[in-house]
Task: inverse folding
């Protein structure tokens, strides 16, 4: 994706005149920088914010180096979810990307996309696998392509401020589920955090080291599978105590965290979904 664009390029991409675009820049509707020669240049993430807030369609996505046909369809979340599930199952990466990008460019939040399209869509995919109407490879391929698209979606987000609070997260040893971790990263970036996923299958000891080294404000752990419940409880409590000593909030989520397990462990917040995560993250920032 381009880094900086001229008003002419942005105008062409959304089908308006260059003079309108320059006027919007001068009125402060679109932030811009000036080159040494005095030309206006617009940072790509400011173009994205402008599109999201103004409801503009993208007429020529290639000018913004967005995938072809991106930004031209306005979806309802229900329509988008149905189409997303079909595209993911069929291994159609371009179509899956287009749906998520379209939703984001038309102003839907990452959090809504995460809960209502990605999580809800994969729930449906899991159900179809359970019923035997889907091959294992179709589900796995879907996960792989969705992960790639989520990483691409990150490039459209405004980068967090340098002094934004740090959040780190991942899954624990024995937990191979990667989608929720990467999705939580985008949600926390949307909440104004410098969110950094450490990936999946992390031993407790390495998370301790990461907390000591980076002093994050928030640690998120996605728990979809627990290898040894007894050991999990003991290690989770040690980790939470260490995090609390460093004023780091521990946020947990995931299908394996049943009530009986939660009762035995310490944490700052348990969230059912990414909307709850965003709300907690906001409350932590005051
Ligand atoms: C993809 C997938 C896999 C993939 C994951 C690959 C990958 N790279 O991630 C792999 C291949 C590993 C896999 C394996 C298995 N899977 Co599986 N899998 C799924 C599937 C389809 C999607 C999970 C997913 O990533 N969803 C997307 C994320 C974004 O959503 P989510 O996890 O639902 O998260 C939500 C909340 O939990 C919460 N959340 C989650 N994490 C966090 C973290 C924080 C901080 C917060 C705030 C919130 C939060 O937010 C989301 C809500 O919006 C589910 C179906 C389903 N219903 O979820 C089955 C499912 C979980 N799997 C299932 C099964 C049976 C298995 C296997 C046993 C299959 C097998 N025989 O091998 C193995 C077990 C592996 C293990 N070690 O545990 C069953 C579990 C049934 C049960 N009773 O527990 C399910 C429900 C499918 C089904 N309908 O039967 N699976």
Result:
């Amino acid at each position: 994706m381009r880094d900086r664009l001229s008003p002419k390029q942005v105008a062409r991409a959304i089908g308006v005149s260059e003079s309108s675009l320059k006027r919007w820049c001068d009125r402060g509707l679109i932030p811009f920088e000036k080159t040494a020669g005095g030309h206006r240049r617009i940072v790509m993430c400011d173009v994205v914010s402008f599109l999201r807030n103004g409801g503009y369609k993208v007429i020529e996505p290639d000018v913004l180096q967005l995938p072809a046909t991106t930004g031209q369809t306005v979806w309802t979340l229900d329509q988008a979810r149905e189409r997303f599930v079909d595209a993911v199952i069929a291994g159609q990466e371009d179509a899956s990307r287009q749906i998520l990008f379209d939703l984001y460019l038309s102003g839907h939040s990452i959090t809504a996309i995460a809960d209502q399209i990605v999580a809800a869509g994969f729930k449906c995919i899991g159900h179809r696998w359970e019923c035997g109407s889907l091959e294992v490879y179709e589900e796995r391929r879907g996960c792989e392509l969705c992960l790639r698209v989520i990483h691409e979606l990150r490039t459209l987000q405004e980068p967090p401020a340098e002094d934004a609070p740090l959040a780190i997260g991942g899954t624990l040893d024995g937990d191979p589920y990667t989608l929720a971790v990467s999705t939580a990263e985008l949600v926390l970036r949307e909440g104004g955090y410098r969110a950094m996923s450490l990936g999946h299958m992390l031993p407790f000891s390495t998370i301790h080291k990461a907390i000591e080294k980076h002093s994050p404000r928030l640690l998120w752990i996605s728990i979809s599978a627990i290898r040894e419940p007894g050991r999990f409880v003991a290690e989770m409590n040690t980790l939470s105590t260490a995090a609390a000593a460093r004023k780091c909030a521990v946020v947990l989520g995931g299908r394996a965290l049943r009530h009986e397990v939660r009762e035995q462990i310490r944490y700052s917040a348990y969230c059912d979904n990414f909307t709850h995560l965003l709300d907690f993250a906001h409350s932590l920032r005051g």
In short: The pocket of cobalamin is lined by residues 115, 118-119, 122-123, 125-127, 129-130, 139-140, 143, 176-180, 183-184, 220, 222, 224-225, 251, 253-255, 271, 273-274, 277 (CB under 6 Å). The first strand starts at residue 4 and ends at 5.
